[in-house]
Amino acid sequence: MDALAHLIDLISRHAPIDGIHSTPVAGVSLVRSAAPTMPMPVVYEPTLCLIAQGRKQVVAGTASYVYDAATYLVASVDIPVMGSVIEASATTPYLCLVLDLDMAVLSELAMRHPASLEQPAQPGASIELNTTTAELLDAAVRLARLLDTPADIEALAPLTIREILYRLLTASGHGALRQMAKADSRLNQIAKAIAWLRAHYHEPCRIDAIADIAGMSRSTFHAHFKAVTSMSPLAFRSQLRLQEARRLMVAEALDAAGAGFRVGYESPSQFSRDYVRMFGLPPVKDAGRLRT
Q1: CB atoms closer than 10 angstroms to residue 213
Q2: Least confident range of 42-56, 73-87, 164-178
Q3: Boundaries of each HTH araC/xylS-type domain copy (predicted)?
Q4: Could you tell me which residues are beta bridge partners of residue 33?
Q5: Whole-angstrom distance, CA of residue 98 vs CA of residue 51
Q6: What's the rounded Cα separation, in Å, for the pair 157 and 32?
Q7: Could you tell me which residues come within 8 angstroms of residue 94 by beta carbon, excluding any fewer than 6 positions away?
Q8: Is the CB of residue 96 less than 8 Å from the CB of residue 67?
Q9: Where are the domains of the chain?
Q10: What is the pLDDT of residues 111-128, one digit of tens each?
Q11: CB 47 within 8 A of CB 96
């Protein structure tokens, strides 16, 4: 059995039904879908998504990313996206291994193994695609195989995860990930602003105040923020607000006006317009469809 077939077998056995499955390995989850899915909003935290079977599309702002078993996705900062499985069936379901990135370990590895070429000072996009190498796939298989031998997880999982992070850090094309591992990088400054926005998305805010958090001038902050997230700071905040409003209507049965007010909208009509622009349906119709 080759490495990819082995990974497919492991994920299939440990994620036997559709959904996101946590595992005994800290920071590792498995995803399965036996059919294509509608675009759904989610906030990616620093993450590796390694597909074993199927295909997925992720849209962040104006940027779109399509990846499969030949390529993997890395998100280096918290970012709201719309994600959809676009290739899956009952006989060949979408299967994916997701690993939360440990930034402390990445920072240590970045210091121990500096880049062979000088990295650009300007931050790149927070989502990057790269070719799945045999070495990365082999490490992912060994990590997933630990699910068959739970007694080995405590001793071996940290070593295997460290190897995976090393593979990501030393792969070409991951300038953003290496920048994120540096405390004084522009990307880390933007990450501070993103963290503030995630915690205070429901509050009024001035761009100048958020730029101060990042330690940049207004114009520099706006340019770097858009380079990282493919959206403006206000569009980023709107996505966070609308995702939470959708959750409130579906999970807590709030009406549209109440959900909009809870997430920071003062105008119900503006909330409805933004909601339709993002989700394609008015709030009440969309929430009703999701509930059923």
Answers
A1: 17
A2: 164-178
A3: 191-289
A4: 94
A5: 9
A6: 22
A7: 31, 32, 33, 34, 51, 53, 54, 55, 56, 85, 87, 88
A8: no
A9: 3-180, 235-291
A10: 888 876 665 556 678 899
A11: no
Q: Scanning the structure block, which residue is given the tokens 């990282």?
A: 228
Which residues have CB under 8 Å from 258's CB, separation 6+? 248
Fold match between domain 3-180 and domain 235-291? no
* Among the listed residues 291, 255, 290, the one whose alpha carbon sits nearest the alpha carbon of residue 39: 290
Report yes or no: 123 and 104 within 8 Å, Cβ to Cβ: no
N- to C-terminal Cα distance for the chain?
Answer: 42
Q: Are 43 and 143 in contact (CB under 8 A)?
A: no
Q: Would you place residue 46 in the very low, low, confident or very high pLDDT band (cuts 50, 70, 90)? A: very high
CATH number given to 235-291? 1.10.10.60
Number of other residues whose CB lies within 10 A of the CB of residue 59 = 17
- In 10 A of CB 199, how many CB atoms? 10
Task: Name 219's Cβ contacts closer than 8 Å, sequence gap at least 6.
Answer: none
DSSP labels for 198-244? HHHTTS---HHHHHHHHTS-HHHHHHHHHHHHSS-HHHHHHHHHHHH
Query: 């990135």: which residue's tokens?
Result: 101
* Residue 257, SS3 per DSSP: helix
For 140-168, what is each residue's pLDDT tens digit? Answer: 999 999 999 999 999 999 999 999 999 99
**What is the homologous superfamily of the domain 3-180 according to CATH?**
Jelly Rolls (2.60.120.10)
Q: Is the pLDDT of residue 184 over 80?
A: no
